[in-house]
Amino acid sequence: MEIIFGRNKKEQLEPVRARVTGKIPAWLQGILLRNGPGMHTVGETRYNHWFDGLALLHSFTIRDGEVYYRSKYLRSDTYTANIEANRIVVSEFGTMAYPDPCKNIFSKAFSYLSHTIPDFTDNCLINIMRCGEDFYATTETSYIRRINPQTLETLEKVDFRKYVAVNLATSHPHYDAAGNVLNVGTSIVDKGKTKYVIFKIPAPVPGGRKEGRSPLKDTEVFCSIAAHSLLSPSYYHSFGVTENYIIFLEQPFKLDILKMATAYIRGVSWASCLAFHGEDKTHIHIIDRRTRKPVPTKYHTDPMVVFHHVNAYEEDGCLLFDVITYEDGSLYQLFYLANLNEDFKENSRLTSMPTLKRFVLPLHVDKNAEVGSNLIKLSSTTARALKEKDDQVYCQPELLYEGLELPHINYAHNGQPYRYVFAAAVQWSPIPTKIIKYDILTKSFLMWREEHCWPAEPLFVPTPGAKDEDDGIILSAIVSTDPQKSPFLLVLDARTFTELASASVDVEMHLISMGCSSQMQAGTGKQALPRRRRPGLPPDGGPKNLTAWRLWSWGPAPPSSRLSPPRGRCRRGGPSFHFALILSAAALSQHSENRTHLYLFFHFILAVRTLLESQSNIY
């Protein structure tokens, strides 16, 4: 498995022409972008977790039946700092970076203090987001990086915190017909409150980029949801929307903020601060998009973990939403590189099967209904919603299909009634081996598979002018465990699931698995095509008029540089006494899981950090 997971992948900076077998539809013109971890060792240091790896961008440019491939590492601040130091110096969620042992004791002290409230990484390896004319590589921190979709060049870094108070944000936003972008982030202990913030990036003004204006500057808070726990907010990877509502799941998969604040000095990663609490319920928050307020009814269901929402819509006074659920949070643990070895099949066995489930919520609860009665009257589903006391409703889902992940739909049906789910099929392993088209109406499915092949997220691209939901093609980048077989781009007829074409390239390509995503940025006709310089050469550009058809790492960035006295020296006295206090406090908390110890240490370390920063600058 080392060839698939652990080996650093090489960049393919110049476009290489793929070998096309079969025939690609003439109307398919554009660029397929992919994102995910590509580098797991820097010098003699190695990341612990697969999703900690440095982001590697890929593109497949499709024009006139030909396909060209290129790849390039995202030149994030994290990438630059690591490469220049020839070691991992920026922490990721599963890998904590520590000071160079050659640094003096005061430098180490400041490193410990800097990690009490961590500044997360800009290693944006999860998704590609479109915002107006701009494209951004995203992760689940507050940072995104603008990229050039034609050349994969890394452009400026953007911090959502400049526009909205969030420490974390999902990398799976939603887009509406007007061009607005909706997303959700977590605001941790802001003004004494922890909350989930739904924010909107308004549709851009035409020509705004030429005038140097980014629509991100107009980002606004749409609404906020108070977290049930001040210091243990829920982890989430996506959310759902309909025409009139937003669905947010506050699941019992939680980040322990106190443990995160003390993780660095205790010698553990931030991943150890993420835990599933099976004794807690899952709270289902419904936001009315018209009033920007939560609906008064309190919905909940059994404890579960959801990474991907599939779709949601409204029907006869009910809100229906489909999600891929797990019974616990073990999935993340399976991607530690120590598990991705020769015993991979044994080590990677999931403790719960990813299951497609449908929840149905009554939007208006009859106050006269009896406690315990089922409030759902739809004949099309077996999902139930049982009335409880105090305006609460307990939701029991309908099980639709077991063994699906990385779901995708025809995005024209997002928030609307729909029928088909395109997804990667998995069993008790998190690694997909098949692509499935699941029919929710008939409960039937079609499947594509090939020996030794691992498919990425399947993307649906509609045929121009299509009227049927499944009139289009499926694109998926495929890697093989057979070293003799080159990776390739697969093109399927979405209606019949027959293979139309494949485009293979003799390059190294990483697997895009759970959490990582792709996006198709496509032109819709000849005018959107890149210009060819001369026959036989790959295109050096891409579609100029791009249409988004729809497309996860953590960790801190290095402290910002500032003018300071020489190394190890301070203004107005030295930090030796304060550092002794820090070490004393650390001795009390280093091996303690006691919440009181951690809470006291958290506030103590913040006070000392503030004092140190006000008195001295240390390297």
UniProtKB/TrEMBL annotation:
Q: How, per the record, is the cofactor bound?
A: Binds 1 Fe(2+) ion per subunit.
Q: What keywords were assigned to this record?
A: Iron, Metal-binding
Q: Which GO terms describe its molecular function?
A: beta-carotene 15,15'-dioxygenase activity; carotenoid dioxygenase activity; metal ion binding
**InterPro entries per record:** Carotenoid_Oase
Using the record, list the residue span of the signal peptide; answer none if the entry has no such feature.
none
Sites where the protein binds Fe cation: H172, H237, H308
User: Which segments carry the region annotation Disordered?
Assistant: 522-543
| Pfam families associated with the record | RPE65 (PF03055)
Q: Name one GO biological process term.
A: retinal metabolic process
This protein's cofactor list reads: Fe(2+)
Q: Which family does it belong to?
A: Belongs to the carotenoid oxygenase family.
Recorded protein name is: Beta-carotene oxygenase 1
